[in-house]
Amino acid sequence: MPRSLFRALGALFLCVALAGAVGCGAKPGSAAPAASTPAWAKGMATVRADALPPQAREVLALIDKGGPYPYRQDGTVFGNFEKVLPQQKRGYYHEYTVRTPGERDRGARRIVTGGSGEFYYTDDHYETFKAVLR
């Protein structure tokens, strides 16, 4: 086998091996890699803030500004009665409505914040949550 062909095949093998190693563990459409997942979100489904629906990103911006919020219930205590989020004292979590286009009422989507800076997103009225990675 000519030396130049051997080098080309070696380089091709190395490229394929490196591409496979870099992509290991990352699923298409998955959130940030596990190494960047904060401790409070370990074991939860995650979503990057920039992958949320536009209405949810608008709510995050309102939370960052401190309001004003469009719904009177926004900023009220979230009781976590479903016990889907980690158990905390009452008053630790607060909820904010994420408008759903086409809905006449508040809909099912919410952002819930935790007292230590956590953000959670639900689109099924508290049945499931994703930790929002910002």
From TrEMBL:
Q: What is the lineage of its organism?
A: Bacteria, Bacillati, Actinomycetota, Actinomycetes, Kitasatosporales
> Under what name is this protein listed?
Uncharacterized protein
The region annotated as signal peptide is 1-19
Q: Would I find Hydrolase among this entry's keywords?
A: yes
Report the domain of life of the source organism: Bacteria
Keywords, alphabetical: Hydrolase, Nuclease, Signal
Q: Which residues form a coiled coil?
A: none
